[in-house]
Design goal:
heterodimer; A: mainly alpha; 73% helix; 0% strand; elongated; B: mainly alpha
Chain lengths: 101, 669
């Protein structure tokens, strides 16, 4: 029997993997991928918790919305990365330190 | 022209005073360029004429005049600069003029060629200004100012040859001793002002002044103190025992100065002052004045006998005669004092001028023969009668006048004093009879010492063998003419038509004094005869001693040494006053250096240490706090800035860490 806890553990694992990717990768594309992983971990949680709302399937609907939004944000993120690359000739976030004091 | 001849006595007397002052200013401005003294001469000549014609002739035996000009106001008291012209003041002013004029003329030859001549004329004019001002001052404060000026001019003139150490010492001494007297005068002024609220002579001692209205008890202690203070002033100025020590030393000045200032006029200022304020003195003060005068007369006559310096003999003679005048004031016969002052001024001035002529020639002799001797020492003189007959005659006249020989002016004034003293003593009774007897002894001594001077200087033969070429000759005419004038004034006829009685003397009749003692007719015959006879005897003795060479006394006797050294009074004064003063000075210096300076330096040291401490506190504690806060902020900021490294991932990591900490906190709570 697969319980809610299993979903949540898997979701947490995915979230942590995504977080690690965001924090540690030296490539902006991979960071974007990490973000997608974290969004998907969240979507998984929506779906898992939707078993308590079997009448409206609110979780399922919200997951669909989130997927759409994630796709949109990836598009926007990729466009930003493209512009960053044009500007800095690199997409390694370690080399882009203009926010430094 | 008519207008010019009608100047009032007040204006004339002001001009008399101011002319020498103008001469002084001109001489001071011209400085070394003017050595002829023409300004001083003209000034004193004009002063003499003005004083004689427009002041003396107008006021003498006329109505006393006075004028006031407001000087300044303190509170409700107004001080006036006033001029008082009565018989006494115009007489005194005229005497000063008439003595100063011959001395000015005499100085022209006497000091010819002196390198400091321009200073001489300047000082002499200053002196004349001060002395003439002193005589006619109505306000005692103004008189005091002139009194000080006179002392200052005297100081300058005594130290005229200031390169001579002895002259510098002498003028210092004269000035310091006079300060003692001036202090007395000043205290007297203060007492008078606090008692009466005025220093105006007319208001205090005038005919309708405070004293004659018997508002003030004349015998009160305060008035006695004031009288003694004024007398102290007069003592110093008129060289009374024991403040007479400065006068013999003052002979370091030029002889013409000695004759004018230290014989005829300035030293008489004390007597003049006492006569001016005579009503102020009560019986006690008058007795003190008489006693001091007597002591002065006898001691200085005694000193004069043993002196070898021709000027010192005359100096002590002056002190002795001033003692006479003081006695006259003391017995209440201040008219006799003023009379003696007037006659003494002429013959003593003449004595000094003659002595100056002798010294002048002796100095010439010294210069020509290259001998080394003191030109003022009587022992080096002798036989000068042959070389300087005119000087001899004039000096002899002056000497006779000094000794009080009949037909001279001195006879009249001295008899006036001695006879009055006898009358006073007989009326007073008791021990007071000592005073006139001492005066007679002084008179004999006077005849003796002046005879000794004449015999030693003019008789016998010159002490040096100067060979055939004797450079001694008569003094120049500009010196002889003033002397001749003074010689004439030393005769009786100038003062009284009757040579044997002072009762007809114009000066005595002009100064009205109410004697407290009755006249004794017998004395008026006996005293002159006794005085003349004793004088003659003393001359006979002197002649046989000094001219015939039958000197009976041991020349080295301790008495003569003692008298010559003035009873060691100078040394005694040195021990009693000068050395202790030096000691006090040294102690004060020590006190000043170690205590006063010590306190000052100590407090400075403490302040420095305290401020060093405060500096340390300020630097390390106050600044430390401020800097510490600043550096804490800096270090903190510096540490925190490493977080702002511009890397998005580390920002995110930080954020996550904080969120994680927050979650852990929430869980553990």
């Amino acid at each position: 029997m697969i319980t809610l806890t299993h979903f949540l553990v898997v979701s947490a694992c995915i979230f942590c993997i995504g977080l690690y990717t965001v924090l540690a990768k030296r490539n902006a594309i991979m960071i974007l991928v990490g973000i997608e992983l974290m969004i998907n971990a969240a979507i998984l949680n929506f779906v898992a918790f939707s078993k308590y709302d079997k009448i409206n399937y609110g979780g399922q609907v919200f997951a669909l919305f989130a997927i759409v939004l994630a796709a949109a944000s990836v598009a926007v993120g990729l466009a930003i990365i493209l512009n960053v690359y044009r500007h800095y000739k690199t997409i390694n976030p370690d080399n882009i330190t203009d926010l430094r004091d | 022209m008519n207008y010019l001849l009608n100047i009032s006595p007040i204006v004339a007397s002001m001009l008399v005073v101011l002319l020498p002052f103008v001469a002084f200013i001109i001489q001071a401005i011209l400085g070394k360029k003017s050595t002829s003294g023409i300004f001083s001469l003209v000034a004193i000549l004009l002063s003499t004429i003005l004083s004689g014609v427009f002041v003396f002739a107008e006021v003498w035996n006329g109505k006393p005049l006075h004028a006031d000009y407001t000087w300044f106001t303190i509170g409700e008291k107004t001080f006036n600069i006033g001029i008082l012209l009565n018989n006494m003041t115009v007489l005194m002013q005229f005497i000063v003029c008439i003595i100063a004029l011959p001395v000015h003329i005499y100085s022209k030859s006497y000091l010819k060629g002196d390198s400091g001549l321009h200073r001489y004329w300047m000082y002499l004019s200053l002196f004349c200004f001060a002395m003439l001002g002193l005589t006619i001052s109505k306000n005692l404060l103004v008189m005091y100012i002139f009194w000080e000026l006179v002392g200052f001019a005297s100081y300058l003139l005594i130290g005229f040859w200031f390169t001579k150490e002895s002259a510098v010492q002498a003028n210092k001494k004269a000035f310091l001793i006079n300060r003692i007297g001036d202090l007395g005068f000043l205290i007297g002024l203060a007492i008078l002002f606090s008692t009466f609220g005025t220093l105006d002579l007319v208001e205090i001692v005038g005919k309708d002044g405070l004293f004659f209205q018997s508002i003030i008890d004349i015998n009160s202690g305060l008035i006695t103190a004031a009288g003694i203070c004024f007398f102290l002033g007069a003592m110093a100025k008129s060289a009374q025992f024991p403040l007479h020590l400065w006068l013999p030393d003052a002979m370091e000045g030029p002889t013409s100065v000695s004759s004018l200032i230290h014989a005829a006029t300035m030293v008489a200022a004390g007597v003049f002052l006492l006569s001016s304020i005579f009503p102020l003195f009560n019986g006690t003060v008058l007795l003190i004045i008489a006693i001091i005068g007597t002591i002065t007369a006898i001691t200085s006559a005694f000193f004069a006998v043993a002196q070898y310096d021709i000027k010192k003999v005359l100096a002590f003679s002056t002190i002795s005669q001033l003692g006479y005048m003081m006695v006259a004031v003391g017995i209440g016969a201040w008219d006799a004092a003023m009379f003696h002052l007037a006659t003494h001024a002429f013959f003593k001035c003449l004595l000094f001028l003659s002595a100056g002529a002798v010294i002048h020639e002796m100095a010439h002799l010294k210069a020509h023969t290259n001998l080394d001797f003191d030109p003022q020492d009587l022992r080096n003189m002798g036989g000068l009668r042959q070389y300087m007959p005119k000087t001899f005659v004039m000096m002899a006249i002056a000497s006779l006048a000094l000794a009080g020989f009949p037909l001279t002016s001195g006879f009249l004034s001295k008899d006036a004093i001695v006879i009055s003293a006898f009358e006073w003593a007989i009326q007073q009774g008791g021990l007071t009879i000592v005073i006139p007897i001492v005066l007679v002894i002084v008179s004999i001594l006077t005849a003796f010492y002046i005879g000794r001077l004449i015999f030693k200087a003019f008789f016998g033969t010159l002490r040096f063998d100067v060979g055939d070429k004797v450079h001694l000759h008569e003094a120049p005419k500009t010196m002889l003419i003033p002397m001749a004038f003074l010689a004439v004034c030393s005769l009786f006829i100038v003062f009284s038509w009757n040579p044997f009685s002072y009762a007809n003397a114009a000066i005595l009749n002009g100064l009205v004094v109410n004697y407290t003692f009755p006249e004794i007719h017998a004395l008026h015959t006996i005293i002159p005869i006794v005085l003349t006879a004793t004088a003659l005897i003393s001359w006979v003795i002197g002649y046989s001693w000094y001219v015939k060479g039958k000197y009976p006394l041991n020349a080295n006797s301790s008495w003569i040494d003692f008298a010559q050294n003035q009873f060691d009074m100078n040394e005694w004064m040195m021990r009693a006053f000068v050395n202790p003063t030096f000691k006090i000075g040294k102690i004060s210096f020590w006190f000043d250096k170690y205590i006063v300076d010590g306190i000052v330096n100590g407090s400075a040291y403490i302040t420095r240490q305290v401020s060093a401490l405060i500096t340390w506190i300020d630097k390390y504690i106050v600044d430390g706090i401020v800097n510490g806060v600043a550096s804490l902020a800096y270090e903190l900021g510096n540490a925190l800035r490493t977080f702002q490294n511009g890397r998005l991932q580390s920002y995110l990591g930080l954020t996550m860490t904080v969120v994680l900490i927050g979650i852990i906190y929430l869980i553990l709570k």
